[in-house]
Amino acid sequence: MFGIGIPELVIILIIILIIFGAGKLPEIGAGLGKGIKNFKKATIEDESKPEKPEKIEDKKNNS
């Protein structure tokens, strides 16, 4: 699809390892996983919630 094969992925992973170091990779992975989980949860909740129309109050009646 994007022309990314195994050699390209290995090079990208090596660059990420050099930039962030081995100690930060688990933290980055956990943060990325939590972000994806929260995004999926938010999209599922939005689809399951029926939309309720909001009440619009007339300002003239409140005076």
**General form:** elongated
Sequence stretches where pLDDT stays below 50 over 5 or more residues: none
Order of helices and strands: HHH
Count of DSSP E strands? 0
Helix-residue proportion: 55-70%
Q: How many H/I helical runs?
A: 3
Instruction: Give the terminus-to-terminus CA distance.
Output: 62 Å
Structural class by sheet pairing and helices: mainly alpha
DSSP strand content: under 5%
What is the averaged pLDDT score?
80
* Radius of gyration over all CA atoms, rounded: 23 Å
Main pleated sheet: none
Describe this entry's structure for a reader.
The chain has 63 residues and is mainly alpha-helical. Helices cover 68% and strands 0% of the residues. It is built from three helices and no strands. The longest helix has 24 residues. It is elongated, with a radius of gyration of 23 Å. The N and C termini lie far apart (62 Å).
